[in-house]
Please model this.
Amino acid sequence: MILLPERDKELLREMEADISKELMQKNFDELMEYPPLHSGSPEEEKAIQVLKRKLEDYGLEPKILRFEAYITDPKMAKLTVTAPQLIEIQTTPYRQAGSTTPEGFETEVIYIPPEMIGYQECRGKIVLCEQRTSGDWMGLQGKLLLKLQEMGVAGLIVIEQDDFMPTVCHQRADFSVSGNPTPENFHLIPTIPAILHVSNRDGAKLRKMAQSGGMKAHIISFAETRWKRLPLLVTEIRGKKEPEKFILVNGHVDTPPYCLGSTDNISGDTAILEVARILNKHRDKLRRSVRIAFWTGHEIGKYAGSTWYNDAFWHDLRYNCVASYNIDSPGVDGATTVREAPYSEVLEAVLESVKDATGIVVEHYRWPTRAGDGSFWGTGLPHVSVTTSRPKETYDPHVNYSGGGWWWHTPYETYDKMDINILKTDVKIELNLVWRLANCPVIPFNYTQYAERMINILEEMQAKSEKINGYYNLYHLIDEAKEFRVLSGKLEAAAKSVAEESDQKKITKINSCLLWVGRYVNPVSHSDADIANQVSMETFGAQPFPRISEIVDLAQMTLHQSAEFKFLHTKLVRERNMVEDGFYQANELIKATLETL
Ligand SMILES: [Zn+2]
Model:
């Protein structure tokens, strides 16, 4: 159910007609003068100043906030195979790792297949390994990197999994900590002195070489890790009826090393400027506020900007922010479709906006990842991101953003990879969705499909763990989630009738309920941390219900009387209580709200 008043629909058409390709091209061209934009660099500062000036030109009052971020900036990397013969291999460094000296070092190279990591001795050696190891896009996830670190590996050469474009190395990272570290998680930041990436094609040859034995390499991976002061740009267009409530429209400004970032995320910043310009013209008709934030510290800084913002403005976000709308990688060359939409309470609004703005019917839904600055899951905000993407034939399945363009996070992410016509389509979707979120009198949230997916996931987890159901199971939790599904249906029906009645008191009540249901279920379905903390980065937030996902590991243990079993069992009982409580609180709130309507 989304009831956007007729006058708002007309206004949307007016705003769409106002989208200016000429102006966007000019802004894009100007921003493209500065990358690569390493966080903390003068180039990044210049880009922020350009954005600030443009927002001022549009009549807004932007502010630059400054904060400290713990950043690892890779400076240079070099890989030379020295035995059985001398070969130089092109390589790119990771963004979160330790550092070698500028001279580097030489030692033996061994290949460890994915299933043998943790079992094969590798102290003091360079390990050649597969990026695909845990099936995730970003890198060696699932604690494997930390395992190798613990085992005293001297360096890693990671074989890029991209066989769609086997001659490129994407700039990747495996940061295990989200945002600035704390005393509790500082040790999780990778400190292996060198982590180098080689292309899929080169990797295949190196693998053969290492498997024949006697391979040696000299590697240099020079990185600088220190606290840096970063700028963060924010502005707000105040709503008229509920000014304290706001939609957080956000995107990152910085780019990875060796990358011009045309489609990740200079195109996104250009889009946000255009959304801000047009919305501000219609601010007198805006119901809720729209806050706009340009993050830094996204690429080399473990999402430092958005996590800092979450820390610094936590109370305001927790109690007033309707949704975080992350704009990353729009306007990509060849991006003629919208492949999928993320599960959340905003799913229906996303589908509606895409259809209304483009005519495209999105058919696939996915569990969202934390990747694009989803730093607000502990806080409980829905994390919305939707952009056009390339169709199946041209979609590189090994990249995360840039609409599936194979050039993502490589030196090939150049000026020509942005298509201004497609950027216009994306801005149409963005305006449409922001306007719905800001102006529908009843917040356009619908939990029914999200609830359905949550139940499926919990049932799949349980099915994989039946072996230990006598010790641990999710039966009661699944019942609680099923009740949530039923109540979500009732809430949706109630929201619809309240919207039709347009009784302001009832609207306020139902909106508070719609907002707070998410505050209860989002942190337990997406985060494994408490509400003021950040989700761990092991799976980039791609793992649903991360608090209890280790039920599968528990079920695979050989001995249920072992200490390991009991330790993990204890943890999982506590975490299951947290997840159950999330559903319980949401269910109680819906019941109480329905009674008063
Ligand atoms: Zn990005």
The first strand starts at residue 63 and ends at 83. The two ends are 18 Å apart (CA to CA).
